[in-house]
Design a protein that fits this description.
The structure holds two protein chains of two kinds.
Chain A (H helix, E strand, L loop, with lengths): L1 E10 L2 E11 L4 E5 L6 H8 L7 E6 L2 E2 L12 E4 L11 H11 L5 H14 L15 H13 L5 E5 L10 H13 L3 E6 L2 H7 L2 E4 L4 E2 L1
Parallel strand pairs in A: 3-8, 3-9, 6-7, 7-8
Antiparallel strand pairs in A: 1-2, 1-4, 2-10, 4-5
Helix pairs in contact in A: 2-3, 2-4
Chain B lengths: L1 H43 L4 H16 L2 H11 L9 H26 L3 H9 L4 H31 L11 H12 L3 H27 L5
Helix pairs in contact in B: 1-4, 1-7, 1-8, 2-4, 3-4, 4-6, 5-6, 6-8, 7-8
Chain lengths: 213, 217
């Protein structure tokens, strides 16, 4: 599905990523683990086009792919941020329908029907009309997942999905990620939590801390 | 007491005439300077340095000199360079230039306080920059800047009395004429009362707008 080879990235002379290669197959889960400061999040930001690699190449389904152009109407990679980044001024439903309406040019009716469908799959059916500040952390995360899913991504990426939640919620995140896997979603999960990674991963990529140049 | 009441009703029409001009100036200035201020604040964040310098200079100039000086400069000074303004246009020009600069600074602060993560969230959802500004950033900036904008709105009601200096018949001038003609304090007290009523009204309206935006945190 997604292949990255020899990704390099440095910030102000500090090499953060050195010749990182990874591969994730369709419908599988790749966990990127490593201590904090090792560059896991940077790697994820490169994959999702929020940061540009200094060198390296990407392929999706064998075709060359530039994450920086992860902005065609052909949805490829969805992102669930560590701090969720919901839009506070929009209701849960509007958070989810915004991009399908603006980017995929779906009609409001269609976008809302799809959003409600996704919400009920994530046990959030009754939350459609409230605002993010009224949600718990776990609910916010599921809204963020719903928002990403609404664009029909081929790959869903998570940055530290367990770190902003109560420890007790780890189990439910695992269940959710594995459920999405059973529906065929390809997922990349950045985490520092090794147990969590081992519970969900098909493959684990360990990123080592930075070295001074 | 009856005399004062009778006198008040006699001069009220001329005061209301002045109020009309004051309000006209107020509304036109707001309608023009708010969007211009928003555009300038976007320009202040531009990556195109010359534009940033130019706009910073403009804001510095407008905020660093008295509005009264700007008004006098435009109406009495520019004719020396053969640029002529009709009184009311001169007032609008000066007020819009001045207030747009203040609003630009307020909006710049507002834009800065929108979490950078919101831009990234919009980006990974593949919203375009204009879509991000319109749908994500502006609504949040509006809520953030409302109290400061409200402050300027109240200031504008009172600042409008500065047009007195270029001979426009605003509320203050109407009161002053009546006072010097009739040698009484009543007109000035009435002028004060009208300004108070106006600022009370706008304060109330601004509260309503703030309440409207309080549906989220």
């Amino acid at each position: 599905m997604l292949e990255a080879s020899k990704i390099n990235k440095s910030f102000n002379g500090t090499q953060v990523l050195t010749d990182i290669s990874l591969e994730v197959d369709s419908g599988k889960i790749l966990c990127i683990v490593g201590p904090s400061g090792a560059g896991k999040t940077t790697l994820l930001r490169i994959i999702t086009g929020l940061e540009q690699a200094d060198s390296g190449s990407f392929k999706i389904d064998g075709q060359p792919f530039d994450p920086d152009s992860n902005n065609t109407s052909n949805a490829l990679i969805g992102v669930v941020f560590q701090d969720f980044r919901l839009f506070p001024h929009l209701s849960v439903l509007e958070n989810i329908t915004l991009a399908p309406e603006l980017v995929l040019k779906e009609s409001r009716t269609k976008a809302q029907a799809k959003a409600k469908d996704i919400l009920s799959q994530l046990d959030l059916a009754d939350k459609a009309d409230i605002y993010p500040f009224q949600l718990s952390g776990g609910q916010k995360q599921r809204v963020a997942i719903a928002r990403a899913l609404a664009l029909d991504p081929k790959i869903l990426c998570y940055d530290e999905p367990t770190s902003a939640l109560d420890p007790g919620l780890r189990q439910s995140v695992e269940t959710l990620i594995l459920r999405l896997k059973s529906q065929g979603m390809t997922q990349i999960v950045v985490t520092h939590d090794m147990t969590f990674a081992q519970n969900i991963a098909d493959k684990i990529l360990e990123v080592k801390p930075a070295q001074e140049l | 007491m009856n005399g004062i009441l009778k006198y008040s009703t006699e001069i009220l029409p001329s005061l209301l005439q002045g109020t009309k001009l004051t309000l006209g100036l107020f509304v036109i200035t707001l309608v023009l300077s708010l969007p211009i201020g928003a555009l300038v604040s976007l320009g202040l964040r531009s990556r195109f340095k010359p534009l940033q310098w130019l706009l910073n200079f403009y804001v510095w100039l407008m905020r660093g000199t008295p509005l009264l000086l700007q008004l006098i400069f435009i109406f009495y000074g520019l004719p020396v360079l053969h640029i002529y303004f009709e009184r009311f246009s001169a007032a609008i020009f000066a007020f819009v230039l001045n207030y747009a600069a203040y609003f630009a600074e307020i909006f710049r602060g507002g834009f800065q306080s929108v979490d950078k993560g919101q831009f990234e969230a919009a980006r990974v959802l593949r919203l375009t920059y204009p879509q991000t500004i319109r749908k994500i950033v502006l609504p949040q900036v509006t809520k953030i800047v409302l109290p400061s904008v409200g402050n300027e709105v109240i200031n504008l009601v009172k600042d409008s009395s500065l047009v007195y200096v270029i001979g426009l018949g605003d509320l203050l001038r109407a009161g002053n004429i009546a006072m010097t003609r009739d040698v009484t304090l009543v007109p000035l007290l009435m002028v004060g009362a009208i300004y108070l009523a106006l600022t009370a009204l706008f304060t109330f309206l601004l509260r309503k707008v703030e309440q409207h935006y309080s549906y989220y945190r």
